[in-house]
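Example 9 (inverse folding). The structure is encoded as follows.
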């Protein structure tokens, strides 16, 4: 009864709307651009957008303990979820369209859980296994041949 919105909610709403437009744009215009060329353009635009934000966060940047764990974690985030997953998602949109490809985004928590088990030695609970089976079953049902 005390539902309230904050700036984070609005940012997430904007992110979802932006992602929907991105997915539709990729489907309509993917044939015009080579995969890696489009990725390069997106990276340059992201860098330009984030430079002003970097200046705001500069004080926090200096306080980071640049250990091997931090550097390897950033490298992992830069390669797998940022690069490889984006290329795979774009190829998926090209192959099956944005509405069917977007269903696979529901697998993100499943792969996050697997990464936590493998890299952080987290324990899997029954609730996570049940949720994982629902997600996988939902993706299979949504993308089954008619």
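The amino acid assigned to each position is listed next.
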């Amino acid at each position: 009864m005390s539902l309230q919105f904050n700036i984070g909610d609005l940012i997430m709403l904007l992110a979802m709307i932006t992602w929907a437009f991105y997915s539709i744009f990729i489907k309509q215009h993917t044939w015009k651009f080579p995969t890696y060329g489009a990725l390069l353009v997106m990276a340059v635009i992201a860098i330009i957008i984030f430079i002003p934000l970097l200046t705001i966060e500069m004080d926090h940047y200096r306080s980071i303990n640049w250990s091997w764990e931090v550097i390897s974690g950033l490298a992992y985030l830069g390669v797998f979820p940022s690069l490889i997953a984006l290329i795979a998602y774009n190829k998926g949109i090209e192959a099956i369209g944005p509405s069917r490809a977007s269903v696979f985004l529901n697998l993100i928590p499943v792969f996050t859980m697997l990464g936590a088990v493998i890299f952080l030695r987290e324990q899997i609970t029954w609730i996570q296994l049940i949720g994982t089976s629902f997600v996988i079953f939902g993706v299979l049902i949504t993308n089954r041949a008619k």
